[in-house]
Design a protein that fits this description.
Elements (H helix, E strand, L loop, with lengths): L6 H14 L3 H5 L11 H11 L2 H18 L9 H13 L11 H20 L28 H12 L5 H14 L3 H5 L6 E2 L4 E6 L3 E6 L2 H13 L19 H14 L1 H6 L3 H16 L1 H8 L19 H12 L18 H4 L5
Antiparallel strand pairs: 1-2, 2-3
Family: Belongs to the 'phage' integrase family.
Pfam families: Phage_integrase (PF00589)
GO molecular function: DNA binding
């Protein structure tokens, strides 16, 4: 009962509802009466077609598991306990990789997939919000990440190894340089097109998870080699920029090949399971230490201020010029958008990488 509601009014409303044969739960149920509720086998393809490609990749496996389990059952027949039982089984049977954490990631993704699935069912009017079973199953607590910033020497060793081994060291060096400069996620580089290069201002348009878009500064050196790569390998203006020598677009498997090969040559990289995301940690840690939290937040492309950052962080958003200033300090190169006097800061990347482009 809200503070403004008078007790006598609430009692009158309850009496009226009882006379009408309506319960409070009925008022919360927004399902459309008379509609035929689909089965899992019928509804999963509809949901999969409605969500973004990233969600399809992330959740498709788990929706397929739900169809295997409940194919002929209507989506409003499954109760929270059954979802939790399925989650426990998926967790127990998760593939045991070297970085396995007891299947928690698989369990978390399954619950996220089911919440996405039932959110669509609520929106389509098949069930009411209060009847959503996936919301009543808690996600497993997420462990803290084992990733951290790489030391300067390790970063130099990583880039040197990638640039002197493999079947396309030029491509691999370009991949590493791009991630170090931009701190972008893997999808940001794989989705880059020649038409996304603003040559005059040394900016690239990154399209990352959650269908977000952002302009990110890069060094003039990196811009030069991106354009040269696109020209030499025949990258179409509206197509994938990164290409193999035969002209085929680069995909996620290149990352697997790159870091598996580096791991074979550098035991510490194999032991710690170094990946492109470690480079994101490395750059953002340095930016935060030198230029502050607000600049690091903008550099990372985080659309919203984290809930634990405090109220003040919402009012101290960094500008694109400040991000370009941090990049100039990182690479040791002037940038057209950077603020004056930016090159006095000691860098973590220029010594390790610039020589690879000479």
């Amino acid at each position: 009962m809200s503070a403004a509601a008078k007790p006598e009014v609430v009692q009158a409303a309850r009496t009226l509802l009882q006379q009408m044969g309506i319960t409070p739960a009925d008022l919360l149920n927004t399902a459309v009466p008379g509609r035929s509720t689909p089965t899992f086998a019928e509804y999963v393809p509809i949901v999969a077609a409605a969500v973004a490609p990233g969600s399809q990749r992330m959740y498709g496996t788990y929706w397929a598991k739900a169809v295997e389990r409940w194919a002929d059952r209507h989506i409003d027949e499954v109760i929270p306990s059954e979802i939790e039982v399925a989650m426990r089984e998926i967790q127990a049977n998760a593939l045991r990789r070297r970085n396995n954490r007891g299947g928690r990631s698989a369990a978390e993704h399954f619950i996220s997939a089911m919440r996405c699935f039932y959110k669509r069912a609520v929106a389509d009017g098949y069930i009411g919000e209060s009847d959503n079973p996936a919301r009543k199953v808690p996600k497993p607590a997420r462990h803290a990440s084992t990733r951290s910033a790489l030391a300067h020497g390790r970063l130099a060793e990583l880039t040197a190894t990638a640039g002197t081994s493999g079947n396309d060291p030029e491509l691999d060096t370009l991949i590493l340089r791009f991630h170090i400069e931009t701190a972008c996620r893997r999808g940001g580089l794989l989705g880059l097109r020649p038409m996304d290069l603003d040559v005059e201002q040394c900016l690239v348009l990154l399209r990352e998870k959650g269908e977000t878009f952002r302009w990110q500064p890069i060094s003039p050196t990196l811009m030069t080699f991106l354009r040269q790569h696109a020209q030499e390998r025949g990258s179409p203006q509206s197509g994938t920029l990164l290409r193999y020598r035969n002209g085929k677009p680069v995909g996620r498997r290149r990352y697997d090949y790159l870091f598996t090969r580096v791991g074979e040559l550098l035991p510490w990289a194999r032991t710690q399971m170094i990946s492109a995301h470690w480079l994101r940690h490395t750059t953002l840690t340095w930016v935060e230490r030198v230029y502050g939290y607000a600049v690091a937040l903008a550099y990372a492309g985080h659309a919203e201020t984290p809930s634990d950052a405090g109220t003040t962080a919402r009012y101290v958003k960094a500008t694109l010029q400040e991000v370009a200033t941090a990049l100039a300090g990182l690479t040791g190169e002037p940038h057209p958008l950077a603020l004056p006097d930016t090159l006095a800061v000691r860098t973590i990347a220029s010594d390790a990488l610039v020589g690879e482009y000479d």
